């Protein structure tokens, strides 16, 4: 789960991190009032769940309250296109007015899970303000990494050494140590999957987060109710949000073959074999190990809501889930939505024979498949016919 910049900075402030003064606004009048309260030059920032806002015109400097008002009015309601939004862009519904900050240098710092070492790691770089992927690709030597023992936490010496490696002066290092330790504490206590500050600016003797991105582990939201309340469903893919309500794992893709699978590993394998046989998956959809007829019906409706879908592949391996219950859901869904595109179904495992028999006797135009490759080849051929 993602949050907006203004929400992330409120959490940083809660954890003792020095962040610039700012205020969320929803109109030009509010923006002008906020700029007067803050005083001096302010920065007008579009609040969307995407990086690269400056490149798309989503971050502007305003030297007067009147300029902040005009800029906000132009920004609200615009479709902001950045390198991360794709061509469709993101609708700007809210704006953050923030005090201007003196910038001496720009750095990068992040706390994340290092899956290779199974530790939490702190990443830092002197190349602040740039996409970290670009830095990693072009100048990997400029990315510094510190592994953190979860039982000990961040030690002062680790943060201190990292600060000096970034070229900070002693007073700046003291500010950096406090920021890193507080950022790590936020990461751990709030079940973050990523806490990224880019850029982290050096301003005199202190370091200040100019932008912040926080991602949270969706599987931990049951114990992070305050974080869950920060969720902005307007910023999420509508189908992904709806899928979560039915305990379905969904990710929208760009292809034309809808996929319905039980188990994340099988879903990844299914998408791979569709690509291998010349097709393009339209989604990642894991109905889970406890899928029933109702959940399958919801899954079908989500798939068919995508106008790009020209065919559906159902790939089920029955373990805990029963193939006959999946078949029941497929039949019900196909009848309810009036299915008129190719449907290929591969059932294997518990009650697979019973499920296959139910599909064969349903009177519906359903193509059975024997194995994953057979299923992929049949749906790709049907879509391309």
Characteristics of this structure?
385 residues; alpha+beta; elongated
What's the Cα radius of gyration?
Answer: 25 Å
Instruction: Tally the beta strands.
Output: 18
Major β-sheet annotation: 6 strands, antiparallel
Total number of helical segments? 13
Shape: elongated
End-to-end gap: 39 Å
Stretches with pLDDT under 50, minimum 5 residues: none
State the secondary-structure class. alpha+beta
Task: Give the DSSP E fraction (strand runs of 2 or more residues).
Answer: 15-25%
Average pLDDT rating: 91
Classify the helix fraction into a percent range: 25-40%
What does this molecule look like?
The protein has 385 residues and is of the alpha+beta class. It contains 13 helices and 18 strands. Strands 7, 8, 9, 10, 11 and 12 form a six-stranded antiparallel beta sheet that branches. A four-stranded antiparallel beta sheet has the order 1-6-2-3, covered by helices on one side. α12 (352-360) links the parallel β17 (343-349) and β18 (367-368). α2 (28-38) runs antiparallel to α3, α10 (293-304) packs across α11 (323-337) and α11 (323-337) packs parallel to α12 (352-360). The longest helix is centred in the middle third of the chain and has 20 residues, at 170-189. It is elongated.
């Amino acid at each position: 789960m993602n949050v907006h910049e203004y929400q992330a900075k409120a959490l940083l402030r809660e954890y003792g991190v020095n962040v610039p003064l700012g205020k969320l606004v929803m109109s030009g009048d509010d923006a002008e009032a906020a700029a007067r309260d803050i005083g001096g030059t302010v920065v007008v920032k579009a609040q969307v769940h995407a990086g690269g806002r400056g490149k798309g015109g989503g971050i502007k400097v305003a030297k007067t309250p009147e300029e902040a008002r005009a800029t906000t009015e132009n920004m609200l309601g615009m479709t902001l296109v950045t390198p991360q939004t794709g061509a469709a862009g993101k609708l700007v519904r809210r704006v953050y007015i923030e005090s201007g900050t003196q910038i001496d240098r720009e750095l990068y710092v992040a706390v994340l899970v290092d899956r290779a070492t199974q530790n939490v790691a702190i990443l830092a770089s002197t190349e602040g303000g740039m996409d970290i992927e670009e830095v990693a690709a072009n100048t990997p030597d400029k990315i510094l990494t510190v592994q953190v023992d979860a039982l000990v936490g961040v030690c002062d010496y680790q943060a201190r050494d990292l600060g000096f490696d970034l070229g900070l002066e002693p007073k700046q290092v003291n500010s950096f140590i406090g920021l890193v330790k507080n950022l790590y504490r936020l990461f751990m206590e709030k079940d973050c999957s990523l806490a990224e500050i880019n850029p982290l600016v050096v301003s005199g003797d202190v370091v200040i987060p100019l932008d912040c991105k926080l991602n949270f582990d969706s599987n931990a939201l049951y114990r992070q109710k305050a974080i869950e309340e920060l969720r902005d469903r307007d910023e999420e893919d509508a189908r992904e949000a709806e899928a979560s309500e039915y305990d379905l794992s969904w990710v929208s893709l760009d292809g034309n073959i809808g996929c319905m699978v039980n188990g994340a590993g099988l879903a990844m394998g299914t998408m791979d074999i569709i690509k291998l046989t010349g097709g393009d998956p339209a989604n990642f959809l894991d109905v889970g190990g406890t899928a029933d007829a109702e959940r399958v019906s919801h899954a079908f409706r989500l798939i068919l809501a995508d106008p790009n879908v020209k065919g559906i592949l159902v790939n089920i391996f029955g373990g805990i889930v029963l193939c006959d219950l999946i078949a029941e859901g497929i039949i019900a869904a196909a009848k309810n939505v009036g299915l008129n595109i190719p449907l290929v179904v591969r059932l294997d495992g518990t009650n697979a024979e019973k499920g296959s028999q139910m599909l064969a006797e349903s009177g519906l135009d359903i193509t059975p498949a024997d194995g994953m490759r057979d299923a992929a080849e049949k749906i790709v051929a049907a879509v391309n016919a």
